[in-house]
Design brief:
Length: 78
């Protein structure tokens, strides 16, 4: 039983070490959103168009989700 547990533990350790290291994604542009009545600069990590609607992958405070462009007052995204 100890041998089986040791082999399982070793396999788990080796599989954990073989996972790729996550790379930090760089923002592609910035946008300004009115949050609580105050303008806040938000980092944008991606831009996509779906059904003629532009969406931004917004960082904090939008939790890195796809958000409609209309939620921002201005941006320097293309």
């Amino acid at each position: 039983m100890k041998t089986m547990f040791s082999v399982f533990l070793l396999a788990m350790i080796l599989s954990g070490c073989s996972s790729p290291i996550l790379e930090k994604q760089q923002p592609v542009c910035q946008a300004i959103a009115m949050l609580g009545g105050f303008p806040q600069t938000v980092q944008i990590y991606g831009v996509r168009v779906i059904a003629n609607q532009t969406e931004y992958k917004a960082g904090d405070p939008f939790n890195w989700r796809w958000v409609n462009k209309n939620n921002f007052t201005s941006s320097n995204c293309k």
